[in-house]
Design goal:
- By secondary structure, the chain is an alpha+beta fold.
- It is built from 13 helices and 14 strands.
- The strands form 3 sheets. Strands 4-5-6-1-12-11 form a 6-stranded mixed beta sheet, with helices on both faces. It has a 6-stranded mixed beta sheet with strand order 7-14-13-10-8-9, sandwiched between helices.
- α9 packs across α10.
């Protein structure tokens, strides 16, 4: 495992399941359980990690290893359930919340897939769970090729025999881990980009320093900004899960009217949800109050697409819940994100992430666990936006009509929001601690209300711009159509003539 993958593995605890997941709903009729099992078995050769389990290194002399599970059984990982017909969205949410809130068996390959039947309108669903140490959100989207097709008539691979590779002995693992601990840092240094010339190196360092110097004051300001710390607290074993959604046209209309990016608009809508939540609790204490959200950022390079290890960094965005004007909230978020973009360009995030490979595995394990057990008050939420496919997907010929993401919570941050885009829809999956968020529906409803507020203001802005443009065109037309007055004739005095007689 890489250091980042290992940190997700070490973060797992009784009250902190560290898997990501999703709920995908399909138009029916549902396939049989046997068809789903055979589909997965035919696809598994493309993703060998799904037949592997985690093998810790004795005395934590190295990071955990992936080894083939000699007792792998597909029927354990692919499961079958149903809701009472006709199952509602609320029943599916409750079922998904229970399934996704339960820990994976850490002694087996770290994934599960649940086939859910009985939904209204002849629909069915798939609930998937994959541990975060296996894959991050962006790579998880790439893994949809495991069972999703672009063509409803697609054919599938036949099931192949599989023989697990021999698992190394404890002595072999210890020897390999010691060797890896000594050689890996040197390989990291050897693979670092070469410096072309001292002059260019100094120029690049100066440019990066200027960008970071501009960024540091704003980041330091976060230390004295009042945050909604009532949202932090201990995490229990149970979860509440809610979801809402928006259309791409809505976010694009707001972006067109007020500038920024679609992601800026999304974060602004989420800010509206947290504002409603805190207002309902009577905790909207100041115009300067913020909810600080960790926003994971993928630093996966184009040549790393398809790799299954985690390639993520993070920024911390202050959601300005104290501001009453939605447009002021959008401007604040846009300014922060623009600043982070400049900073991320100045810093090689991949190099920062790989620096974790220099940390002794025992210290890495102790540091992650200690940090999560101690909790933190720096941020109050996790907000992650995973781009999905913009074309229809199919499973066994059945079209997927929606998908909602599930993101874990940990370390005193009791709420996470996974945003997933598919076709023309963007869904918001809200995972929250059961005791800390009895009013999670206020948050999900507030996000939807925030979208509608922004959209109404965008339409008003567009109408005003259209009227102003029409008035300007009309004024121009009137000026062009007005008859021109003939220039006034001026009478020039007659020239005096001097004659010989006059003299």
């Amino acid at each position: 495992m890489s250091a980042l993958d290992a940190s997700f593995f070490y973060a797992e605890s009784e009250n902190t399941p560290m898997h990501v997941g999703s709920v995908a709903v399909f138009d029916g009729p549902a396939p049989t359980y046997g068809d789903v099992v055979r589909l997965i078995l035919g696809k598994l050769p493309k993703v060998p990690r799904y037949r592997q389990r985690v093998r810790p290194v004795p005395m934590q002399l190295g990071r955990p290893l992936w080894v083939d599970d000699p007792h792998f059984q597909i029927l354990y990982h692919v499961r079958h359930t149903a809701v009472p017909k006709p199952g509602s969205d609320e029943q599916l949410r409750n079922l998904a919340g229970r399934v996704l809130g339960q820990r994976l068996d850490m002694a087996k390959p770290l994934w599960e897939l649940w086939l859910v039947e009985g939904l209204a309108d002849d629909r069915w669903a798939l609930i998937s769970k994959v541990h975060h140490c296996m894959v991050d959100g962006v790579a998880g989207t790439d893994l949809m090729q495991l069972m999703f097709d672009l063509d409803p008539e697609a054919t599938h691979e036949a099931v192949q025999d599989w023989t697990p590779r021999r698992s190394p002995s404890s002595l072999e693992i210890m020897a390999g881990s010691v060797t890896d601990s000594l050689t890996s840092p040197m390989q990291q240094l050897a693979n670092a980009p070469a410096i072309g010339s001292p002059v260019r190196a100094v120029q690049e360092l100066a440019a990066s320093g200027k960008t970071l110097a501009r960024t540091v004051p704003s980041l330091a300001k976060q230390a004295i900004t009042p945050t909604a710390r009532s949202l932090n607290g201990p995490i229990g074993p149970h979860r509440r899960w809610a979801w809402t959604e928006g259309r791409f046209e809505e976010f694009k209309a707001v972006r067109t009217a007020f500038g920024g990016t679609v992601n800026d608009v999304v974060l602004t809508a989420i800010t509206g949800g947290f504002r409603d939540l805190l207002k309902g609790r009577g905790e909207l204490s100041s115009e300067k109050l913020v909810v600080r959200s960790m926003v994971p950022v993928s630093v996966r390079r184009e040549n790393q697409k398809g790799s299954l290890n985690n390639q993520v960094s993070a920024v911390f965005v202050d959601l300005p819940v104290g501001l009453s004007d939605p447009i002021d909230r959008l401007r604040s978020i846009r300014g922060q994100m623009d600043e982070y973009k400049r900073a991320m360009q100045a810093v090689d995030a991949n190099s920062i992430i790989s620096m974790g490979n220099f940390v002794a595995p025992t210290l890495l394990s102790m540091g992650v666990r200690a940090g999560l057990q101690a909790g933190q008050m720096w941020c109050q939420a996790v907000t992650t936006n995973v781009p999905g496919p913009r074309v229809p997907l199919y499973v066994l010929g059945k079209r997927m009509c929606s998908a909602t993401a599930y993101v874990p919570i940990a370390g005193g941050t009791r709420c996470s929001i996974g945003i997933f885009s598919y076709l023309n829809t963007m869904t918001f999956g809200i995972n929250a601690d059961f005791d800390g968020y009895p009013d999670v529906d206020v948050l999900s409803g507030g996000i939807r209300r925030g979208i509608e507020q922004l959209l109404a203001l965008a339409k008003k802005q567009t109408q005003q711009e259209v009227r102003a443009e029409a008035d300007a065109d009309a004024a121009t037309g009137r000026a062009a159509a007005a008859p021109r007055k003939a220039p006034a004739k001026t009478t020039r005095p007659a020239k005096k003539t001097t004659t010989a007689a006059a003299r």
